[in-house]
Write a structure and sequence with these properties.
7-stranded mixed β-sheet; 473 residues; 3 helices; Cu-oxidase_C; Immunoglobulin-like; binds copper (II) ion; Multicopper oxidase family protein; oxidoreductase; metal-binding
Length: 473
Amino acid sequence: MTRGLLGEPEQQAQAQNMMRMHDHGGRVPAVRTGASVAPFSVAMPLPPVLAPVATLPGIDFYRLSIQPSTTEILPGVSTPVLTYGGQFTAPTIRVRQGRRALVTFDNKLGHEANVHLHGGRVPAASDGYPMDLIANGKSKTYDYPNNQAGATLWYHDHTHHMEAEHVYRGMHGFYLVEGTDEQQLGLPSGAYDVPILLRDALFDDQGGLVFDPADPYNRPTLMANGKSQPYFKVAARKYRLRLLNGSAHRIFELSLGNGAQMTQIATDCGLLPAPVPTNKLVLSSGERAEVVIDFGAYPLGTQVTLEDVSGPVLRFDVERRALDRSRVPDRLRAMVPLAAATQTRQLTLSLDPVNIQALINNQAFDPNRVDMQVRRGSSEVWEVTNSDTNVGGSGFGVPHNFHTHLAQFRILDRDGKAPLPGEAGWKDTVLIQPGETVRFQASFADYLGRYVYHCHMLEHSAIGMMGQMEIVS
Ligand SMILES: [Cu+2]
């Protein structure tokens, strides 16, 4: 084991705990599954939109605490959680493209933590580098320039070794960038533009969240915006739904219970070139998809479920009429041709269950080691392979995904085959199935310094499936 990954005894213990991949170690927690609660018994809340504490020309100032809190995920049960702003689905920060946001976080968690703006193109000092932490009792102001296209971003903890548990316990929220050219498109807006954070959890008898990194597959309760299988009353008209997989580990495979199509309009980093009709959305941890669903197609009283392969997540209840002047244009966004790539790199993801590590190119993350240097403003092709077809000789394959900080990318191919139409836009996170190689081309704009890239199944990044690049001039 490298010193960088497992220097402290408590971190060693934690990592060993994480690598008991499927071995419950005799400590099987009492399960209070989502199935024990009647589905669709509570309304899906919308996370509050955070108001600026001060404003200057071109700049908004925001302030949020990082603090423990409680929330009601299962009806009538109080669950301790870790939050931004005391809210289990943190307040939504909604900004306009080109308008800078300075967000101050006051850490009252009782231990160190930080904040990463997932999908944000931000200076290295504001990226939430895993070792760049806010001590308990201290504050830090993150500088978000918002010089990027409109997109559904999110903010979450990135404390090295603790990111999986922190995010699992609730340190996640939306950060929505409104694009300057979006309004003229006429997409559903205002009350009909709805962020939905999807995730999972396992509960104990007392309603506490069980975090067992060794068994991330046993998290049967599905939630939307912090409630277990809620309903959401909708008008009979078009809605823009911003779906985020905020799970630490789970892959959602989503469809509508009635088999109807959704119209996908955006992916991680904003609008697709054109709308894509689809009846299935696969979102791995950290990925986003925006869809338009026209509930005007249904009579009042219709109930439409959003289903994962493991069960329903959310039910839309069509309960009133409303005027609808929104539309989904045939063209959403011009895609600039990719610049010529200056570099091709190969990265291989693998778990090492014997040494309790997760690796990129056979190395666990070491903050003292720079894995590559990348020229600012360059464009590179990365070939990322998931070699875990037979983890530890078990015969089982394990999916991974891959997230780049700072850089946005476009998928070139999967095992030589063209990407799906819904993957045709700019992305920052991509699912890679066992044995699969994904080739993407990334652009490294704007900022210098050290940024990480990693598997966004956070139990994997927490034990080393992460590397760092240094952007140089
Ligand atoms: Cu992984």
